[in-house]
Amino acid sequence: MTILIEQPHFGFKVDEKIPGDKKELVLDGGFVVPQTNAFGQTFRDYDAEGERQPGVESFYRINHICQTYDFVKRMREEYGKLNRVEMSIWECCELLNNVVDESDPDLDEPQIEHLLQTAEAIRKDYPNEDWLHLTGLIHDLGKVLLHPIFGELPQWAVVGDTFPVGCAFDESIVHHKYFKENPDYNNPVYNTKYGVYSEGCGLNNVMMSWGHDDYMYLVAKENKTTLPSAALFIIRYHSFYALHRSGAYRHLINEEDKENLKWLQIFNKYDLYSKSKVQIDVEKVKPYYTSLIEKYFPAKLKW
């Protein structure tokens, strides 16, 4: 079944800091952080002029206008059915061979390369944390939502930084200015600090903008993975930069979130800074990762 998403009609032309701020590039192991991304620019610089910048900003414009509370609720209900297809984790990895993330200013390589770069960088520094290696491999698998068999959703409904819906959009979110055209921006039910939530309610009770993060979390959880809770937290919130890089929305997290956030901050550095044009030998590392998949997941998953 194909999900039809209405394209937007535009009325214009087309407190506390957490560890690991933007200046802190020291990793916990031996991974060497590059000074620039694949295009010779600083990482996550959304204003730097270059071949990727116009397309990335255009992406966020549409994303911020269309990601509403009602839209997210509808997507979670539809895709939470997991009735699209049954396939293995590795089969899903291979579907990403031709997917390029339009929201990413740092890389234009197929997504399977990014998955392996992330996983291998973590593996070298944390050799005994095999669950974290596998999390690196699968964290972006939800991007298969771009594939026809998953409804071929537009990029704005799949990738990009994530953020809570149902409460005010924090100014730390990249290209925040475009939220002014979001229907929820002026809705008094959704545009306050807490919105429909409460102090310390826990992120599990907060709806995030819809995309690959939340979808892969649903897939892993409903297919009874034996990965630890920190892995599911990483999968679900690795694109929530407003929290783990800027310290926003701390008023919504609970004690379990705080513990899992420590692992997410470790993971995020590898997710971000391992991006490069250097490709991984897939066939060489495949046996190791398939063994981890067998350890933590069933042979076939419902997607």
UniProtKB/TrEMBL annotation:
Record note on cofactor: Binds 2 iron ions per subunit.
Keywords: Ascorbate biosynthesis, Cytoplasm, Iron, Metal-binding, Oxidoreductase
Pfam families: MIOX
Catalysed reaction equations from the record: myo-inositol + O2 = D-glucuronate + H2O + H(+)
Coiled-coil intervals: none
Essential cofactor(s): Fe cation
A GO-annotated cellular component: cytoplasm
Residues the entry annotates as binding substrate: 44, 101-103, 143, 160-161, 238-239
InterPro entries reported for this sequence: Inositol_oxygenase
GO MF entry, a single one: inositol oxygenase activity
EC numbers on record: 1.13.99.1
Residues at which Fe cation binds: 114, 139-140, 212, 238, 271
Subcellular localization(s) per the UniProt record: Cytoplasm
Metabolic or biological pathway, per its Swiss-Prot or TrEMBL entry: Polyol metabolism; myo-inositol degradation into D-glucuronate; D-glucuronate from myo-inositol: step 1/1
GO biological process: inositol catabolic process; L-ascorbic acid biosynthetic process
UniProt similarity note: Belongs to the myo-inositol oxygenase family.
Protein name as it appears in the record: Inositol oxygenase
Species for this entry: Manihot esculenta
Upper classification of the organism: Eukaryota, Viridiplantae, Streptophyta, Embryophyta, Tracheophyta
